[in-house]
Amino acid sequence: AFELFTKLQAPYYAWHDRDVAPEGANLRETHANLDAVADVLEEQQKATGVKLLWGTANMFSNPRFMHGAATSCNADVFAYAGAQVKKALEVTKRLGGENYVFWGGREGYQNLYNTDMKRELDHLAKFFHMAVDYAKSIGFDGQFLIEPKPKEPTKHQYDSDAAACMNFLRAYDLDSHFKLNIETNHATLAGHTMMHELDYAGMQDGLGSIDANTGDLLLGWDTDQFPTDYYLTTQTMLMIMKHGGIGTGGVNFDAKVRRESFEPIDLFHAHIGGMDAFAKGLKIAAAIRASGELADFVKNRYSTWDSGIGAKIEAGEVGFAELEAYMLEKGEVDANQSGRQEYLEHMINKY
Predict the structure, then answer these.
(1) Is the CB of residue 44 less than 8 Å from the CB of residue 60?
(2) What is the per-residue pLDDT across 155-207, written as a single tens digit (0 to 9) for each?
(3) CB < 8 Å & 24+ apart, contacts of 18-25
(4) Which residues are tagged catalytic?
(5) Residue 194: phi, psi to the nearest 5?
(6) Among 93, 105, 27, which Cα is nearest to 55's?
């Protein structure tokens, strides 16, 4: 793996605990396996200079998590998940990880007949508060990230999209501790675009990192393909730049080659192609922003809010009574202006 990272000149890598170290016969042996592999990871990081972007715990593959991890109806499973995250946090800190990610693969439900949703969400919040408290106790000051996804494997996952995640974080007083790791393929599964999810997370001060992949729009599941579409990468970079970057997060390839691409060189083609696509997307987005053409159009479209009644509404200086008086005197609204969608799409094509 580190040979691949260095040949790609990638500055960071990331891991799931079960990706790098297999489970043992019991939790003690599983912890020992991860510690043994962490020794090797530490050696490789020092030898290559490749740094750890984030660590995370796989709490969805093992059958013990069939009803969820932090949201399980079985308290023992909650306890096991806590022990697993405790170890993953310790190893992430040891290896200098700059973030820690939660993906609730089975934190959701298949059927509401057998589910106490409020209790499960309360438990999920308790779990996250425990993680925050433990991170403080060991001096881990990396960024916590939640990765939204709507479904697969569960019918409904509690972290279904950026809006649901931000609402949950605020409701349970966790928003100051967590940001979001947005993934393209998860956005499309939620019925959104990557651009939408990034813009929503960004405007809520919740944008933390991205999983840089794409899906096949003709297939209704998470295919985790490498990105090659300049429109996708440009839109992604437009939103990241709009909201001031992604802090300690990164552009992480949660992606895999296709089943038929089975030779080692295919890994290089895939990663290099994805890296180049994002580099091109960044250059295109920077050129769009530098010209001001798109920003000027959007500003002009909302110009009625910059003065007059629009400015008074935004300033909180009027209510319904004042709005009625204003419209009774005016009689009718000013003519609407065209959204110019086709013009704007062509404008982006020019770049």
Answers:
(1) no
(2) 999 999 999 999 999 999 999 999 999 999 999 999 999 999 999 999 999 99
(3) 18/57, 18/58, 18/61, 18/62, 19/58, 23/62
(4) 16, 19
(5) -60, -40
(6) 93
